[in-house]
Amino acid sequence: MHVLGIESTAHTIGASVVSEKGIISNVNSVYIHPKGSGIHPREAAIHHSEEGPKVIKEALRNAGIDINDLDAIAISLGPGLGPCLRVGATLARYLSLKFSKPLVPVNHAVAHIEIARFACKASDPLVVYIAGGNTIISTLVDGRYRIFGETQDIAIGNAIDYFGRVIGVDYPELINVEKLAMEGKEIYELPLPVKGQDVSYSGLLTAALKLVKEGKKLEDVCLSFIEHVYATLCESVERALAYTGKKELLLTGGTARSLILKEKLKYVAQEHDASFAVVPAEYAGDNGAMIAYTGFLAFKSGVRINVEESYVKPMWRIDEVDIIWHTN
Amino acid sequence: MIELLSKGAEAEIWKGKWLDLEAVFKVRKSKPWRHPRLDKMILETRTVKEAKIMYDAFNAGIDVPYIFDIDLQRYTIVMEYVRGVTLKNVLNKKEDKVYELCEELGKIAAKLHMRSIVHGDLTPANVIIRENGKLCLIDFGLANFSNRIEDMGVDLHLFLRALESSFALIAEKCFDSFVRGYAIMDGYKAVLEKVKEIRRRGRYVLERRLVAKL
């Protein structure tokens, strides 16, 4: 059984083929935003529509499979940026109709978790999913990924990237802000917004940017900002670990590439006698494989969607999706 | 004779003797993943604040563990050992009395809020049902003095979130009972409205988008 997966929720258009043998191809093309600005949804969508067909063809070629031999096409319908989502969805619908292949809807956030579970062979983890658009601490309870903690405003990756763009570091902002932080010495006190198991980053971001404006040493501000951001997240993760009693901690999403956070979360897991795994770099950022793999699981369990109903859902929450392919 | 009762997110809870009394020692732990200066800052302020707030809640007639001693060098609060089971345990067993207990907890939350105290981590694991059946509220580690409706809303939001994530099937009924008790506070409706707003703030809530259109 072969499933083609297509991803286009934000800056990446990706395609991948998954079969019982695993991930047999994974091709991705990333829209790189101009320095000093974030993703422009329209520009990203134009990039996706130019690159999409090439990416899909290459994914099929690398997998050595003809499009007629596919069993299903999985598409990431959300959450994400509307214009970007529509490009992938249009391609998937077209292929589904033209080659009479069933269409399988995939939630992008669920896919980040599933690919990490698969790649790290985790059986029942507490998942920390952090990226430019999401900050979610979740685990599977009663057939859905329930949210134990999330951001009440902007996502952790968004906060760090925005901070990086204002102080003028190059892409990838996350890594460059962390590198500056490693040279910092002084810690300034900033708000530490832990609301129970939830976090919130907009106030912390504003406070850090105020320090920059006041002309404080940039390395010190980076250190203070990064330490506060991660202390907040680690605390929420720790609370969720204590509350759920899970013995596996799994980190996934684009911000999983962070150099500093991994070390911190490793300590958190250790303190609670939990194992700790991080999604491999190739599956950390958005990618086609996670959609194909999750689509494969869903398709095997009988999940389908009619083309007429396959609207994109820019605000599709992770806890709205029934997870029928795991039994626990 | 000292025994580790639980290892929470930010502190270890030990059981021992203080003078002749059964006592709980809440010891805040240094976190190796926090920058040492940030760590010290956090530990000191939180220990002092927690003790202050518990004392104030006690004076307001709310059942909380009685404080025996505070040790700022070791970031430790020594307090009464409360015998009983947690509300979380009772919810797990889905006993019929859970709805009454939730209503009672709603009343306690209202009393707390009327004294401008917000708990900050109002989950079923932080409520002990004493052997005489009365509810005792524990873990004021994230509590705050506040009369902002926002902060009170967060208390309710967290309780609802905890119900939904672990007891999805009875969550709604439990929360309704909680609200019945909470209604003893004037202006409780404003807080309930706030809870709805806070829920909408979670990312990708459909309703949030509808509100934005209005």
Keywords:
heterodimer, A: 328 residues, alpha/beta, Nucleotidyltransferase, domain 5, 5-stranded mixed beta sheet, B: 214 residues, alpha+beta, Phosphorylase Kinase, domain 1, Transferase(Phosphotransferase), domain 1, 2 domains, 3-stranded antiparallel beta sheet, 7 helices, 10 strands, 46% helix, globular, disordered C terminus
Secondary structure layout:
The complex is a heterodimer of chains A (328) and B (214).
Chain A: E1 3-7, E2 12-19, E3 22-30, H1 41-63, E4 72-78, H2 82-98, E5 103-107, H3 108-120, E6 126-130, E7 135-141, E8 144-150, H4 156-167, H5 173-182, E9 194-195, E10 198-199, H6 202-213, H7 218-244, E11 248-252, H8 259-271, E12 275-278, H9 288-300
Parallel strand pairs in A: 1-4, 4-5, 6-11, 11-12
Antiparallel strand pairs in A: 1-2, 2-3, 6-7, 7-8, 9-10
Helix pairs in contact in A: 1-2, 3-9, 4-5, 4-6, 5-7, 6-7, 7-8
Chain B: E1 3-7, E2 11-18, E3 21-28, H1 36-59, E4 67-71, E5 76-80, E6 84-86, H2 87-92, H3 98-114, E7 117-118, E8 127-130, E9 135-137, E10 144-145, H4 149-166, H5 171-182, H6 188-201, H7 206-213
Helix pairs in contact in B: 3-5, 4-5, 4-6
